[in-house]
């Protein structure tokens, strides 16, 4: 298996497992990741995902040996790593405990939140090989970071350390090496105590409203709030508050 998939309560852990190849993305990684994402999205008991990697490198990006062989390393729906274009609805947290470079950073940028250790670094070095970051990095990085910082990273190809990424807002939480999965699990737990549909619809509003006018932002918010109002959990939240107990979410 190139990508492992594990259940932990309402959390699902995806693990890149090609440490001997620096977790570079080949056909198997992309197809297995997309298959696991299909299962994740279809599972009503799966509310939050964590994406980690075995070995000292989170991912070095595309497997150039696979690329040179002529075999596609992308999937039709998910694209690179079966992930960067996948139409997800559920939160995904990247747990980064080593370098995330080129396509590795683009995998991170496809996630919603990032936990990292000081062993992590982030970069898109494609220009050093007369390439460009083609899996979303060039338009997602300026959203995650200040535009000028993203421009510097894109034009120099030089990486930034986890501490700098944390200061700039790319990383949500720093932790000790070897503890990124535990830290991501803790963050996932803070999310999964909440109503899952409300979480998903809030995620959609944040993503869809980026860069739009206030008028459009209000409309996007109203549209997704209507979805939440129609759920059983919408009634359960106030009821649990009145009854002074923890809510029991059904995810419907």
CATH architecture group name of the largest domain:
Alpha-Beta Complex
| Rough outline | globular
Count of DSSP strands: 11
Order of helix and strand elements from N to C terminus = EEHEHEEEEHEEHHEHEHHHH
The average pLDDT value, as a whole number, equals 95
CATH topology of the largest domain: 2-enoyl-CoA Hydratase, Chain A, domain 1
Which runs of at least 5 residues are low in confidence (pLDDT < 50)? none
Bin the helical content. 40-55%
Characterize the quaternary organization of these chains: single chain
List the total number of helices: 10
CATH superfamily placement of the largest domain: 2-enoyl-CoA Hydratase, Chain A, domain 1
**Major sheet details:** 6 strands, mixed
Strand residues, percent: 15-25%
Structural domain tally: 2
Rg calculated over all Cα atoms: 19 Å
Alpha-beta content class: alpha/beta
């Amino acid at each position: 298996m190139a990508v492992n998939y594990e259940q932990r309560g309402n959390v699902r852990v995806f693990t890149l497992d090609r440490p001997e190849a620096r977790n570079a993305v080949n056909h198997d990684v992309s197809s297995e990741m997309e298959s696991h994402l299909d299962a994740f999205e279809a599972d009503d008991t799966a509310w939050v995902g964590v994406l980690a990697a075995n070995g000292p490198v989170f991912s070095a990006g595309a497997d150039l040996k696979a690329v040179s062989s002529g075999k596609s390393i992308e999937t039709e729906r998910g694209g690179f790593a079966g992930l960067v274009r996948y139409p997800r609805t559920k939160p995904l947290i990247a747990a980064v405990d080593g370098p995330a470079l080129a396509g590795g950073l683009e995998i991170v940028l496809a996630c919603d939140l990032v936990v990292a250790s000081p062993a992590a670094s982030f970069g898109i070095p494609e220009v050093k090989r007369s390439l460009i970051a083609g899996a979303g990095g060039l338009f997602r990085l300026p959203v995650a970071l200040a535009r000028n910082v993203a421009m510097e990273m894109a034009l120099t190809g030089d990486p930034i350390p986890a501490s700098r990424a944390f200061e700039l807002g790319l990383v949500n939480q720093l932790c000790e090496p070897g503890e990124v999965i535990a830290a991501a699990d803790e963050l996932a737990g803070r999310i999964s105590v909440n109503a899952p549909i409300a979480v998903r619809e809030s995620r959609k509003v944040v993503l869809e409203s980026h860069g739009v006018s206030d008028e459009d932002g209000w409309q996007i918010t109203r549209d997704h709030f209507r979805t939440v109002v129609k759920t059983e959990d919408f009634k359960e939240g106030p009821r649990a508050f009145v009854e002074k107990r923890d809510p029991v979410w059904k995810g419907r």
